[in-house]
Design goal:
The complex is a heterotrimer of chains A (about 80), B (about 425) and C (about 400).
Chain A lengths: L6 H12 L5 H5 L3 H4 L3 H15 L13 H9 L10
Chain B lengths: L4 E10 L2 E2 L1 H10 L4 E3 L12 E3 L12 H6 L2 H17 L11 E6 L5 H11 L17 H5 L2 H11 L5 E4 L5 H14 L5 E8 L4 H8 L27 E2 L1 E9 H6 L6 E10 L12 H13 L9 E3 L6 H15 L8 E2 L2 H4 L6 H15 L1 E2 L22 E2 L4 E8 L3 E8 L3
Helix pairs in contact in B: 3-6, 7-13, 10-11
Chain C lengths: L2 E10 L2 E2 L1 H10 L5 E2 L12 E2 L13 H6 L2 H17 L10 E6 L5 H14 L8 H4 L4 H10 L5 E2 L1 E2 L4 H14 L4 E8 L5 H8 L29 E9 H6 L6 E10 L10 H14 L8 E3 L6 H14 L5 E3 L10 H17 L1 E2 L13 E2 L5 E2 L4 E7 L4 E8 L5
Parallel strand pairs in C: 5-6, 5-8, 11-12, 11-16, 12-14
Antiparallel strand pairs in C: 1-2, 1-9, 1-10, 3-4, 8-9, 10-17, 13-15, 16-17
Helix pairs in contact in C: 1-12, 3-6, 10-11
Classes of the chains: A mainly alpha (about 80), B alpha/beta (about 425), C alpha/beta (about 400).
């Protein structure tokens, strides 16, 4: 299983988990709020990523403001939580 | 003459305390009933704590058939209703049954039984097309919580307006508010009202896990529910029921009933903002408070005690603090405000009625219950939350507020009449 | 104060929209078809009234669609139509308009998916929307949010009579200062096998597999009802407010009453429904001779039908035209009473009594309107409804020119 996500995958997840359709170009320059992805939508996206990766992203993941920041958190060595998965 | 609804009896089934007397002892002692979940194996859950009722239906007069037929939340309601009826002794022989109503609240109704049966019928979630033959004979009663009010109506002998109110976590306030309005509007003379919930089940706990709304202070369950405290980290699930007997005031007076208080005003509003999120300013809750006070013909400075929603989530407690300030103005800083969820947890739809029962008892006894576990307040929560210890304080006008998923904001004003 | 209906919206087995609903109902068209989504062999029910080809994305923004169950989709779509129809300005004062949408089963299909995820995958497989999609308050909450409505917001669970009770409740809300109430009933109980299993437990569903004979209320062949889905939403206002803004008044809600008849049966004996009907007529200030048509509850079980027929004969010794359009599409629980209210409003408007589909004769000593629509001068309609939880309700609706 990949330990990374791509912005394309995140765009797809925003559609399935939060019901918000966008494109890569818009996603990388927008915040979740701009896109209309609310707090529950971000929680849903994070929870699917955590299940795919088999690791927790930590308590700050839902507070990440934008798709770009979330991709960075996942890919650039976010601290791996020791919590039960 | 204007018709008014007065409370002539109460009954409570709360975590750590069955019966109004035990309930009030628990609250005024500042004891917490939150603990590790025992009703199911919560090992794999984020939040593994809850405020549970130790409850044996047989001990409280429910026979085997009733215990099998009624889901746990309905059993709680039946026991609380029996206590409230004994307390009030409403004149059911003189009031025609068509003039006796029931108004009961619940947020999630028969979820516990639905899930238990579902697990049996689906091979633990494996089969989408379930095996109907594995269902319990009472499953259909779990699908719709109209059964809650119906069972209480049968207990009371009510044949008037009988309805279940299901506005999420404000159900327990709204059910009583609707009951009072039914009396005011001449639709009924006696209404048995309240709310019940038994949500300590895997699916109900998991859905709040998923949005991190519940506390994960699993190492310290007794201190996990910390409304208004700097270290609060979510609500602690509770369960239980409370029932109030409401009567039209002149009937109660005529029969010499002990009138505990009047349901003087009620209002609710949607916040039209978000299903779970709250706007910081608390405008809609403040508006509900102001409208409820107007309907009670009371001013903000008349309020002697505020029973807070105080769920212990970061956003709620700030939202509510601001709403109380916005609606009560300077008086907000003088009036005691406390959250009994610190002790009995948050029983979703039931808690509003349990909190109204606490308000009635506060008016009866001249004591206001504390907010347990409040050792270091959030600097943004700067009212008098009656930390840790109950306080002697005369209450003639009590305000109870609630806030729930779906954006519901409700307020009920109780007083001693005019 | 007089409560009037100034807007209507429906989602029914005839599709989305009130015009299509009236076309189907007035023609007595049968909309009953096999349950399409799964094998119902073990459930002793084969037919249903399903909203055909419903795609929520055609009507609702994606972020609302993912958060909600179909029962809230139907409610949101019906609310949109009702608001448009009413021409209500909800923007100037958000506190002026309230919402009260009834359901009796909630988002049970959404819930089944999430319970399945929990039990097969563990707690972290439950999504963030389970906490807001399943509960009975989901539709009222989402409609309030989506349309910016901050007035009195409520939810009643009284089964089929929900909409009738919501109209009664809205009178109290309007009297207390809310200017308009969006009231309705919505249900989507067909997409989930578990939901169907719960319904089947009550032993009131028809096991028939012939759409033309599965749901035959008031006949000797009555053997239960066909379950259905759908919603109807109405905008209720005080008549004076509605007139002042130049609204088109579609019907007057002249009286409402509700009673209790016992859990688990449809008002055995019929005394509760009779009392509710008399109560609603008293509040409307009318007598039996003033009622031009009755929209019957028509459960379709021999006992419930006999009780209702007896109650109607007692209330209307001189007879009254009776109809049950739901025989053409089934009983949609909290949507049932709501769709009946909508049918009654449309019937008054069109001066046509829609027939009871599939039923070819008029037994039980009732003047049941069958086979073809009946054109008649209609001023007043009585709508009746009962639920398995014990509620019985009645509403008197009057044509605005004759109220």
């Amino acid at each position: 299983m990949s330990n990374h996500i791509t912005i394309e995958e995140l765009v797809e997840l925003m559609s399935t988990c939060a019901g918000v359709r966008t494109d890569v170009g818009t996603a990388v320059t927008s915040t979740f709020e701009d896109l209309g992805v609310d707090s529950l939508g971000v929680l849903g996206v994070v929870s699917v990523i955590e299940r795919r990766l088999g690791r927790k992203l930590g308590a700050d993941a839902e507070a990440v403001p934008s798709p770009a920041a979330l991709v960075a958190l996942v890919n650039d060595g976010a601290p791996v939580s020791t919590e039960r998965v | 003459m204007k018709r008014e609804a007065v409370v002539t009896g109460i009954g409570v089934v709360a975590p750590g305390a069955i019966g109004a007397t035990a309930f009030w002892d628990l609250l005024t002692a500042g004891r917490t009933a939150t603990r590790h979940v025992t009703l199911f194996d919560a090992t794999t859950f984020r939040s593994r704590i809850a405020a549970e009722v130790d409850f044996d239906p047989a001990e409280h007069g429910l026979d085997e058939e009733q215990a099998a037929r009624m889901d746990r939340y309905v059993q709680f309601a039946a026991v609380a209703a029996a206590e409230a009826l004994a307390d009030s002794a409403p004149p059911l022989a003189e009031v025609p049954p068509w003039r006796v109503g029931v108004s009961m609240g619940t947020a999630v109704g028969g979820t516990t039984r639905l899930e238990r049966d579902y697990v049996e019928m689906s091979q633990e979630g494996a089969d989408w097309v379930v095996d109907r033959s594995a269902a319990s004979p009472h499953l259909y009663r779990a699908l719709t919580p109209s059964v809650l009010s119906g069972e209480i109506a049968e207990l009371v002998g009510a044949r008037g307006p009988v309805r279940t109110v299901s506005t999420g976590c404000t159900s327990g306030l709204d059910a009583v508010g609707y009951a009072a309005q039914a009396i005011e509007d001449d639709l009924a003379d006696v209404v048995v009202t309240g709310a019940a919930e038994s949500p300590i089940s895997p699916i109900a706990m998991a859905c709040f896990d998923a949005i991190k709304a519940t506390s994960d202070s699993n190492d310290d369950p007794a201190r996990a529910s910390r409304p208004f405290d700097r270290d609060r980290n979510g609500f602690v699930m509770g369960e239980g029921a409370a029932v109030l007997v409401l009567e039209e005031a002149s009937i109660a007076r005529r029969r010499g009933a002990r009138i505990r208080c009047r349901v003087a005003g009620f209002a609710n509003h949607g916040n039209a903002f978000h299903m779970t999120g709250l706007r910081r300013e608390g405008e809609e809750m403040a508006r509900a408070v102001t409208t409820a006070l107007d309907r009670a013909r009371r001013s903000a400075t008349d309020v002697d005690y505020v029973n807070a929603h105080g769920s212990g989530t970061v956003q709620n407690d700030r939202h509510e603090t601001d709403a109380v300030k916005r609606s009560l103005g300077e008086h907000a800083r003088r009036v005691p405000v406390s959250s009994i969820k610190s002790m009995v947890g948050h029983s979703l739809g039931a808690i509003g009625s349990i909190e109204l029962a606490a308000c009635v008892l506060a008016m009866d006894t001249g004591v206001v219950p504390p907010t347990a576990n409040l050792s270091a307040p959030d600097p943004e929560c700067d009212l008098d939350y009656v930390p840790v210890t109950a306080r002697e304080h005369r209450t003639d006008v009590a305000l109870s507020v609630g806030s729930g998923f779906g954006g519901f904001q409700s307020a009920v004003v109780l007083d001693r009449g005019e | 104060m007089t409560v009037v209906i100034t807007g209507l919206g429906t989602v029914s087995p005839a599709g989305v929209g009130t015009d299509g609903y009236w076309d189907a109902v007035s023609e007595g068209r049968s909309l009953i078809a096999p349950i399409p989504d799964f094998d119902t062999d073990g459930f002793h029910v084969r037919l249903c009234g399903k909203v055909p080809g419903f795609d929520p994305h055609q009507h609702i923004e994606g972020r609302y669609v993912v958060q909600t169950d179909a029962f809230s989709w139907f409610a949101m779509v019906a609310a949109d139509e009702a608001l448009r129809d009413s021409g209500l300005d909800t923007g100037t004062d958000p506190y002026a308009t309230g919402v009260l949408i009834c359901s009796c089963a909630g988002g049970v299909e959404f819930g089944q998916h999430e319970i399945a995820a929990l039990w097969s995958g563990g707690p972290d497989h439950v999504g963030p929307y389970q906490s807001i999609a399943w509960f009975y308050a989901a539709s009222t909450g989402q409609i309030s949010i989506r349309n910016g409505l901050k007035g009195m917001c409520g939810v009643l669970v009284t089964d089929e009579p929900g909409m009738l009770d919501a109209l009664g409740q809205s009178e109290g809300a309007l009297r207390r200062g809310t200017s308009a109430m969006l009231v309705g009933g919505s249900e989507a109980p067909l997409g989930s096998p578990f939901s169907l299993a719960c319904q089947a437990g009550a032993d009131v569903l028809s096991a028939g597999d012939d759409p033309s004979s599965a749901y035959l209320p008031f006949t000797e062949r009555a053997s239960g009802y066909v379950p259905a889905e759908g919603a109807a939403v109405a905008v209720a206002e005080d008549a004076a407010t509605a007139r002042a803004r130049g609204a088109r008044i579609r019907a007057v809600v002249a009286g409402h009453a509700s009673t209790f008849g016992g859990v688990g049966a449809f008002d055995p004996g019929g005394a509760g429904l009779l009392h509710a009907a008399r109560g609603a007529m008293d509040r409307a200030g009318i007598g039996p001779d003033d009622v031009d048509v009755v929209f019957a509850d028509a459960v379709g079980t021999p006992k419930a039908d006999a009780d209702e027929a007896a109650m109607l004969r007692e209330l209307f010794p001189g007879g009254v035209p009776v109809t049950a359009p739901k025989a053409g599409f089934g009983r949609a629980y909290a949507g049932a009473g709501a769709l009946d209210v909508a049918a009654a409003v449309l019937s008054l408007e069109h001066q046509v009594i829609p027939p009871t589909p599939q039923v070819s004769d008029a037994p039980c000593g009732l003047d049941l309107v069958v086979r073809v629509p009946r054109v008649a001068p209609l001023r007043t309609a009585l709508v009746l409804s009962r639920g398995l939880g014990g509620g019985n309700s009645a509403v008197v609706l009057r044509h605005p020119d004759h109220a």
